[in-house]
Structures are given as structure tokens and as C-alpha cells.
Amino acid sequence: MSTAKKILIVVAPKDFRDPEYNDPREVFSEVGMEVKVASIQSGIASGVDGTEAPIDLTVSQADPSQFDAVVFIGGSGMLEIIKDESLQILAKKFYTAQKITASICAASGVLAQAGILEGKNATSWSGIRDILEKNGALFSNEGVVTDGKIITADGPTSARKFGEEIVKALK
What we know:
Elements lengths: L5 E5 L3 E3 L1 H13 L3 E6 L4 E4 L4 E3 L2 E2 L10 E4 L3 H6 L3 H12 L3 E5 L3 H6 L7 E2 L6 H6 L3 E2 L4 E4 L2 E4 L5 H12 L1
Parallel strand pairs: 1-3, 1-7, 2-4, 3-6, 7-8, 8-12, 9-10
Antiparallel strand pairs: 4-5, 11-12
Helix pairs in contact: 1-6
């Protein structure tokens, strides 16, 4: 039985932000964590800059008991599906199970709409700050914000640090 930590990365089927996916994934691999990729549909997800991410399972198939953390990746594709209820349900399941629940950039809107950022310090891409605040988040202009088991980041420039914070939280 493997003792490696398991991370579920959630991406939009198309137009996720490549560095927000690639940088944390690289950090997770460097420390030997296992990564699975989920999306709202099967197949291969594609990033804005051409990164291809084979989908291991759909969001509705994901079982929080099989993972140590969930990481929602931003980008214009995530903005298009930000109101998808299956994403919010997944975020709630991980949060309720006391697992690390993380998001970067526009994906922080999923956590906000799932109701799990209420009263929490969080950050996101500035374009969705209003969604976070409307859902009770205490918005921060920091690059990466950790509040309990919730880790949020503002975008691509913070992607590597975001990955490192998730690793630190799982130790």
C-alpha cells in the first residue's frame, strides 16, 4: 500500500491556465505525491497555452476518501463552468471531510459559491473578487492565502508557491 499523498487536480475541459496546472503538479511530483486529474467531462483537457491533461475521472466520480487534497485550477475555461453544481458539490465534500481544499485564480469562485469561504481569508484573480466577497470571504491581496484547510492563490505568478503551500499543509 502506497503512503504517498494523493492530490486531485480539477481542470476545465478547455482553456485552463497552464502554469496554474503545471507548476503545482511539478511541485507535487518533486515530493513524490500521486496526482489524478478530474474534469466535468472525460477525455483530454487542454490549456490556453496547449498543455494537455488526460482526465482520469469525472468530477462526479471523485471520492474524497481516495485523496488527501483537491486543487481547483483557474483560467477562462473555469470561468465558463464556475457555476457548475458538480464542482461546488465536490469542493463541499472535500471541505466537509476535512481535506485540503485549494483553488487558484478564477477557480476560487467555485469555493466561494460552494459556501466554504464564508468568514475565511482568501484570494483569487481580481476579476472575481466580488464573487468571493458576496459569498462572505475576507478578500486578501496576497499571492497565496492559507486559512485552516483552505488554500487560495491569485494566479499564475503564485502557482509554484501555491503548490508548495499545499505540500506544506499535507506534511
